[in-house]
Amino acid sequence: MYTTDLSGKDKKKSEPTPLKQEDPKLLAAFEARVANDEFIEPKDWMPEAYRRTLVRQISQHAHSEIVGMLPEGNWITRAPSLRRKAILLAKVQDEGGHGLYLYAAAETLGTSRAEMIEALHSGKAKYSTIFNYPTLTWADIGAIGWLVDGAAIMNQVPLQRTSFGPYARAMVRVCKEESFHQRQGYEIMMALAGGSREQKRMAQDALARWWWPSLMMFGPPDDKSPNTEQSIRWRIKRETNDELRQKFVDVSVPQAEAIGLSIPDKKLKWNEARGHYDYGEIDWEEFYAVVRGEGSVAKERMQARVKAWEDGAWVRDAALVHAAKRTAAKIAAE
Amino acid sequence: MNNDWPLWEVFIRGKGGLSHRHAGSLHAADPAMALDHARDAYTRRMEGVSLWVVPSAQIVASDPAQAGPLFEPAEDKIYRHPTFYTIPDNVKHL
Questions:
Q1: Chain A residue closest to B26 (CA)?
Q2: CA distances from B66 to A44, A163, B57 (A)
Q3: Which class is domain B7-80?
Q4: Distance (Å) from the C-alpha of residue B3 to the closest C-alpha of chain A?
Q5: Sequence-ordered list of residues with C-beta below 8 angstroms from that of A199, at least 6 positions apart, any chain
Q6: Domain ranges of chain B
Q7: How much is the pTM?
Q8: A31-78 pLDDT, tens per residue?
Q9: How many beta-carbon pairs below 8 A join chains A and B?
Q10: Complex prediction ipTM
Q11: How many Å lie between the alpha carbon of B80 and the closest alpha carbon of chain A?
């Protein structure tokens, strides 16, 4: 569902990752392949910085899928009808699957699932800032599907052609499954916006709270995203944060208008000359604060995640012991 | 400490008559669990009619650095393709 470029989060480390001490011949061949839009596969030679960037980006993306299950899972029992419950359950199950595809893609680069999960739980690894906001009403589940998944799709569509084969293939699968997420969210908003005055107010309130965090999901502005240039050259990223953000604004404004909701931005205005909507200033201080874990529910999310992992430990251990016993019994019987 | 369950590769037959195709990977403690997980993770939308799961450690892969010596010799043997041969237009069924 969600990948947020968190580069530049630590202002001290604003230098782009340096290219260093790689065999110049191998490096040149690698650069040429990537420039030629070829895919890089796990066993191919790749620069260390490429490997590191991918492990960071793919694992952050995977963590975001997994953490994203928490706020939505919370609403399954409270969804207003059996139909909505079944849909939300299927969506949350998809997110778990997306986490799996992505962890598996990162594992092909030589990291292990255990290491990645440890990094998430210890706070060393980041996940999308969007999940550190609370989901107060049912309308929030609509807004998340429509805007948060919508922003994620905007981000992920170009990643289907990212240069690392396993990541690109995971993205193809994710994108195929994702569009129902956005449509079910919009349908929730549509139902509320067309409902009672109270329901419409709920939808408008959810849009007001989720709009800006959704724009932040595209990551810092291009001039504050030090890794963007290299990531674009290596075809890890295909479009810059600001380009994607603009696309998202352009498609979302008419969607809001169509159901009579208003985007909470007084500066939002169609710019005929640019052929795009102009929009107001994003509060980047808030973004960096949330990246640092100051979102109002950041602690709660991680506690829930760690608890689920620890509560499941005996199941994972027992499954391994059971498998070993069965293997031993089978060998003895032969 | 790495207590990860072993890694498996998942192959799906899309429909009868097609071959199994690699879909992705997953962790599972044993073959039965690998099949269950493959079914849950990779066939939620009628993607297939049959699944294979193979322990990833059992796959032997060619070395990409050897791709030249392995595959390039085929490049200059175009006489293995039917279009290499010129046959007069008036000769049919060939």
A1: A104
A2: 11, 21, 21
A3: alpha beta
A4: 7
A5: A139, A191, A192, A193
A6: 7-80
A7: 0.90
A8: 999 999 999 999 999 999 999 999 999 999 999 999 999 999 999 999
A9: 57
A10: 0.85
A11: 27
